[in-house]
Amino acid sequence: xxxxxxxLIGGKWxxxxxxxxxxxxxxxxxTPLGTVxxxxxxxxxxxxxxxxxxxxxxxxxxxxxxxxxxxxWAVADLIEKYADExxxxxxxxxxxxxxxxxxxxxxxxxxMFRYYAGWCTKIEGSVSAVSIPGxxxxxxxxxxxxxxxxxxxxLPLAIAAWKLAPALACGNTVxxxxxxxxxLTTVFLARLCLEAGIxxxxxxxxxxxxxxxxxxxxxxxxxxVSFTGSTEVGKLIVAAAARNLKRVSxxxxxxxxxxxxxxxxxxxxxxGNLQGALLNSGQVCAAYTRFxxxxxxxxxxxxxxxxxxxxxxxxxxxSPDTVMGPLVSQEQVERVAHYVRLGVEQGAELVTxxxxxxxxxxxxxxxxxxxxxGVTDDMAIAREEIFGxxxxxxxxxxxxxxxxxxxxxxxxxxxxxxxxxxxxxHNLAATIRAGSVxxxxxxxxxxxxPWGGFGxxxxxxxxxxxxxxEFTETKGVWINLA
Length: 482
Ligand code: NAD
Known about the structure:
InterPro entries: Ald_DH/histidinol_DH, Ald_DH_C, Ald_DH_CS_CYS, Ald_DH_CS_GLU, Ald_DH_N, Aldehyde_DH_dom. By secondary structure, the protein is α/β, with parallel strands linked by helices. It has two domains: about 5-250 and about 455-480, 3-Layer(aba) Sandwich (Aldehyde Dehydrogenase, Chain A, domain 1); about 255-445, Aldehyde Dehydrogenase, Chain A, domain 2, CATH 3.40.309. The chain is about 40% helix and about 20% strand. It contains 16 helices and 19 strands. It has a seven-stranded mixed beta sheet with strand order 13-14-15-12-11-16-17, sandwiched between helices. The structure holds nicotinamide-adenine-dinucleotide. Nicotinamide-adenine-dinucleotide binds near residues 150, 230 and 285.
């Protein structure tokens, strides 16, 4: 299938109005992969107009929920039909191992559409128990309107899908704005939406950088922004949204603690934390990053996880032997290297990694899996989101320390507890401030489980029925029965 390099506006593939384009790179080699149109302000205006026209068009506005459900199901089928192409494209554009693209990213995208296809016919209002005599009151759930869906570069297809599927299930129209580093699979997804028969203008797609994102978030014709990305940009979006008080949902950064209790199965904790920390080269918002290990087990844990990390096969995502691929960009490599330097300067012990590999991999954006021990709560590597393959190991003496230390962060996206004791597990699950707490497992995602964070990790929840709340307005209707 040919991937259009242009913008999708009102059902037509168009170049940018001013002809601007930008390159996307293969992170495994640092060489250009393709060129795509770069949306400017007039393209943003055109896409918002197209989305508004489609929103007001009865073909979409009054489409029966069962018909919308069939369209979403058709998108899921098409994602599966093109699963291999989508996975390869994601690996080439983003760098993730092909096993992650095929086993996680693409199937999750298809499942999002299936799950929300089911919701289309279950978005219901209710009759309210009002006390004013001679009246009745009922509620309707109505779409919010034109939604800008702005996504990051770490799991491009799955994140686009987990916003797009509920937005469409509720009857909204959208403008997708993928990250400039990884536009290709989102463009592919937009094309599949057209192929599935979703009416022109319901799904628009603008490739471009922060300027296109900013123009969307400031646009008075946009009713809602659903954003996944950095906390810093999330704050800019809130400020921009104040112009017309558009609805905003935010999935932002994280710094997930992972607690290894005295009674934990250390081998399971090592294997789970290694994957939880290094999945997608650590470029996962829920990645386990700071490890609080019982002081009697910390040496054993450090030794085992460092040995496992240093033995991980690094390589291009398309190579079947690769367990860890490159980072997404040179900028990301520099960010990780900066934090490694800070870790050393602030007195942590570098146990393994800490540098770019040389040899065959020197041309790509690779970074070795890196483990620090002797980390303290005040160090930058324990506090700030690195978004790369860096594990910071801390220790604790008394379990009473755990919740306060885990909660001593602006973030609150995910956390993990490794223990065999139910009391420890439930007590920590209740006291750690995070949108998702995992017990003895990896940070899985499922369309049926709400996803989002406390504090600086964002506003609102995606996935599950809560995404339906995020993409609808509640209208009350009063009837005078007297
Ligand atoms: P980013 O915030 O730099 O960019 C995200 C998107 O926002 C891109 O499409 C970008 O073009 C756009 N953008 C940039 N400036 C903008 C502006 N002023 N107005 C509107 N849009 C703008 O984030 P990133 O570097 O692409 O992604 C990494 C971040 O995403 C990390 O902080 C990570 O934790 C977070 N993330 C969170 C989740 C989650 O579910 N909570 C999931 C994945 C990634």
